[in-house]
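Piwi domain-containing protein, pasting as requested.
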Amino acid sequence: MRWWGFQVSLLVSFALSLQVFAATLQQYPNPSIYPASGYWTMTVDGVNVPVVAFDGYAYAHFSFGNGAARIRIVATQLTSITDFIASPVKMGYKDKSDTNIWQNAIGFTMDNPHYMIIRIPGGYRELIICADPLEMDAPPSTGSGIFNVVTNFGADPTGTSLSTTSFAQAMSAASSNGGGIVYVPPGVYPVGNIIIPSAVSLYLAGGSVLRFTGNQQDYTTDWLKTSQGRNGTEWITTAHNSADIKIYGRGTIDCNGEYALRTGRFIAHAVVPMATTRFTYDGPLIRHCAAWTLMVTRSNNVIIDHAKVLNALSMGENDAVDIVDSQHVVVRNSIGVAWDDSFSTKAQPQGLGITINYPGTNQPVTDVLFTNNLAYTGCYGFKVGQGVYSTQSNIRFEDGVVYKAAVGLGVHHKQGSSAVTGVQFTRMEIEELTGSNGGHQSWLALFNENGNLGVGPMSDISLWKIAIRDIGSTNSVVNGITGAAISDVRLRDIWLKSLNRYVVSLAEAKVVPNSMASGVVLLSNSSRPYQVPSHVATVGVNFQLPPSLHLHLHNLPIMASSFNAETNSFLISIPSSIYQQYAIEMQSRSNKPLKRREKIQYLQHLQNVVKPDVFRPRLVYDGDAIAYCAGQLNFGGSPSGSFTVSLASTRLVESGRGITIIVSPTGGQPIDPRSVSPFSVHVHDLLSGRRETSRARVAITLIQNIVRQWPNMHHTNNGRAYFPLRDLRDIRDIGYGLQLTRGIFQSVRPSDLKALVLQLDTCTAAVYKHGDLRDISLGYLGSLEGERGGRHARGPANIRQLSTLSEGEFRSLERFLKKVRVTYKIPGGQPKTKIIHGLVRKAGEYTFMKDDREITVAEHYYRAYGYRMQHPTIIGVRFSPKDSERQVIVPLELCEVERGQLYKKKLPDAVTPEVVKFASLRPAEKRDNIKRAINLYSSSEFVQESNIRIEQQPLSVAAKRLPHPPLLYAKNDRVNVDNGAWNVLRRRFYEASEMNHWACINFDPAKVNMQMLRQKITELVQCCGVLGMKVSPQPVWTVEGNPQSPNSIFENINPGPHKDLIIFVILPDNCAQLRQTVKHWGDIRLGADASHPGPGVQKPTTTSLVFSTDMYATKYSALMGIQEPRTELIEDLEDFVLRAVERVGDKVPRPPSRIIFFRDGVSEGEYDQVKEKELAAMDRALQR
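C-alpha cells follow.
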C-alpha cells in the first residue's frame, strides 16, 4: 500500500501480549523477639524475606503487587528434595511449568497475593507463606488526625515497659477529635486492655508487635473458661454501642499463649469487636493465642479481611475465627491455624462463663459469609456450632480449603434449643483428614447432641461442588436425635479424588443418615466433569492479521503490568421454573388511577395477608399491569380471580369499600428458559449477541423483576434502585427539609461471557426528611432565607413566623410540600396516611359549614376531640383538591412526614457541593457497599422459588495497568505523571495559543466592582504569559450586565471584525437559570460515537470515524454518516479513511509509518465478517 510514495503498514490493535515485570515487594522488619527459622529461608524476586520459627511450623509474611512474584524457598536442614505439597492444591503449583526443585530448594511463581502452606513429605516442618496485597491505605506516621503512640504519647517501642497508658491516651485523643487513626510504629509494645471508641482506627505498621503479658494484674478479668478453670480477658475490644471502627495494617498481635499458660494460667481472647457496627479488620497477623482468637461478638455489618491467625497446634480451645451472636458478617481471604476450630459460628448463652459480661441479650447469628479462606486444624475446618442458644441461619461457606482437619465441614448442635437453618457449603475443598474429634475423622459431620443444655432442630443444609481429596476413616454422619431432628439436607456435585468423578450415591460419599434425619438426598450432578478451579482467570482475544499486513510489535514500547480487576457484576443463572404471565387490573371506588407504589402495596397485601393460601407461589409484579408466577394459580376452578381489599383489613371487603384487584392469565405463552425448552434458544441468541427477540426481552424482564422484587418490597425505591434508609452513615441532612441517602442500583443484563450478570452500583437520592411537618417546613424556609443571605441557615428561630409568610414564601413552601405523604393522627384516633394537595393560611381560623352553622377548624377540633390547637394562626395543610366542594383542612401540628419519600424535583443549587461530596465514595467503600448488598438476594423468596443462583463473589477480569505516558511541555520538557498528577510549576505549554480578542461580561457588579475586575484581568494576563500564551493586555470591551435580564446583553453583542472573540462571563452565587442561559448561548463542538437505534425503532444507525491530525495524537477530527438501521459494518469506511488521510496530509509534513485502527462494538458472532470486509475497505482507500 502506497501513500505519497511511502510504505505504510497497517496496525490493527485488538489485543497485545504484554510483558510482566517483577512485582513491587513490601517486606517488614522481623521483631527481635522472634527467632529466625532453622528449617527454612526464603527470597522473593531475589530479596531475602524473614522466616519466623514457631510452634511446630515456620511462617513468612510480606506483601507484593503490580506483577507476579518469583518465590524461592530453601529447606536448610535437607540436602535434597524429591517432592513437596503446596496447599491450596487447587492452585496447581506442582504442575506449573515454571515450578522447579533444585537440590534442597523449591522455586515457583506466585501470580497474585494469597496464603499457602508448603509441606515436604516425611515430617519436615511446614512453612506457611502469608503473602498480602500491597498496602494501599497505609497512613502517614504523623499529621492531622494521626495519633502516634510513640511520638505523641510516649509509648516504649523497646518492649521494656508497659504501654497501656499511652494507648489509652491515644484512643481518648482520637475520640475527642471526632475520630482519627491511632498509629503504632515498628517496635514491641507489652500492653494491657485496649478499648477502641467509635470512628477510631488502630493501625499497626509492619514490624510492630502488640504483646499480651500474661500477668493478670495488667488486665481486667472479663470471663471464666469453666471447662478449663481459667480466667481471661477481652484484650483488644471495641467500646459498646460503637460504630465505624477499623483495625488494619501489617503488624502483629501476639497473645504470648505459651507463657500465659505456663506462668499464671491467665489468657486472652485476642481481638473482640463487641456490640459494635460497621467494624473492619484488615491485615494484622495474630499469633499464639491460648483462647478463642478473633471473635466477632454481638455485632453487625462486620468485614474480616486478610486475617492471619497462626496459633500453636499443641494447645486446645484456641479457635481462630468465631462469629458469635452477630449478623451481616463477611470473613474473607483469611487463614486460620489452630488446634481447635479454624472458622466457626456460635450462638452463646447469656451470663455464663465467657459470656458473663456480654452486653444485652442473646442475639441470632444470621447472614454470615466465609469466603476464600484456608483452614489448618486438629478439629473442624469450617463449622456451625456447638452453641445454638439463638437461631443460626443463612450461614454460607464458599471457596474454602481445608488443608488438615479431623472434620472438614460440620454442623454440631450440642447446646441450646434454637434451630440451625439455611447453611450452605459451596465450592469447598478437603485436602487431608488427620487425627480424630469426638470419634469423627470425616469430610462431613452433621449431628445433634444432647449436652444437657437443650436440644434443637437442624434443617435446610446444602453442599454443592465439594472436592474431597481425603474422605477420612469414619462415616460422614447425619444424625438427629429425639426432639432435635435433621431435615432437608441436599448434596450435589460431590467430587471424590479416589474415584476421579462425582459420587453417584450417598454411600460412595460415606454419608450415613440415621432414623432421625429425613430428606437427605444426593441431587443430580452437573453434566460437566469436575475441574480444578483456577485461582486466576486470564482473558485474551485471538485475532489473526492478514499476511499482507506488517505488525511491527518490536517498535512498540511494552510497559504494562497484569492484575485482576474486580468488577461490580455477579453471575446469575437463568430460572429453572416455568412462569405464567398474569394481567393485573386494579379498580378504585373513584376510578382514579393508582400510583405504582400503591399498586404494589395493594397486591402485596392481597397475596401476603389476605389470601396467602391462594397466591402460592407468590406473584412477581412489575408494578404496572403484568405479574409472573412460578406455577399455575388456582382460583377455585376459575382461570381468573377478583378480590376487593383494604389495607385496613386482613380479609376481603365488600365491593365499594376497597380496591378491586383482578388477576387473569394473559394470552402469552409460558416463559420456560430451561435448556430443554425452545424458549431457551431466544435467550441463548441474546447472550451470544446474535439477535434480540421479543421472547428474549420477556425473559430478561422476568429475571429483572424476580431480582428486584424483594429489595423493592422492603425499601424505598424508584424501580431500578432501592434505598435502605437504615445506616446513619448513608444518610445526610442537607437543609431544605431534605436528606441525601445512598442506595443500590440493580440491573440484570447479558454479558460478553455469554451469561447473564447482575450489576450493582451505589447511587444517591434525595428524600423528604421524616418527622414533624412543622420542623420540615421551618427547615425548608430557613434554607431559603440562608440562600437569599448567601449563607446556609438552619431555619426560622420562631414557629410564629409560619403565620407571617410572604406570598413568595407561601407559594414556594406549597410547591415543596405538594404530593407529600403525611401521617395524620386525629387526637384519640388511629393514624391515617394522606397526601398534601396544598396549604392554607391561618388554618385554625379557616371556616366551614357543619350542622348548618359555620365553624372554625380550631373550634371543630376542640368540640369533636377535646383538642386545643397549639398554633391556630400558622399555616395548615389541605388534603382535598383545590376545586373540591368539601375542603379538608388539617393543622400542621397533627401531621408527620412519612419516611422514605423520594424527592423528584430539582435540588437547589446551594446543595450541589454537598451532593457531590456525599455521592463520591472511595473505591473500597463502594466495593464494600456492593458486597454487602449482594448478600440481600439470598433472603429473597422470589429468587429462591425461581431457583436462580446468584454468585456471591463479583466477577474478576484480567487487566493491564498501563503506565502514564510522559507529558511534553515547551523546549522538550518531559514531565512524568504520578497517579494522575504532575507539577506544572514554571512550565510553558508545548504549543501555546494566542488570545488577541477577548471580552468580559460582569453579572455580579455588587460583589466584583470595576477596580477588582481590572485587577483580575491583569492577573489573568500575567498567568497566561507564564504558561507561554500571548494575550492582549486589555479586553476588547467590558460590560456590566443585569442578571435578571441577560438576553438584553447577549442580543446586543457585536463581535465586529473579531470572529474568534472569546467572552469571559462572571456569575453571582446561586444563579442556576443564568448559568443555563449563558451555556445555551455559547457554541460547543461535539464528538460523535457510532450508535444503533433501540429495538423496534426504524431510525438509521449513526456511524463515525475519529482520527488524529498531528504526530502526537493530541488533536482529532471526526467524520459522521448514517446507514440502514442495526447494520454493524460501516458502509462508508473506505470513503471515511480516504478523507481522513487527505486531511492529515494537509497538516503534517510527512506521512506516518503506521495506521493504528481501533474498532469497537463488534459482537463475537460478527467478528470475522467485520474484520475481513472493513480491513479490505481500508486497504482500498490506501491504494487510491
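Note for the archive: The first helix runs from residue 164 to 176.
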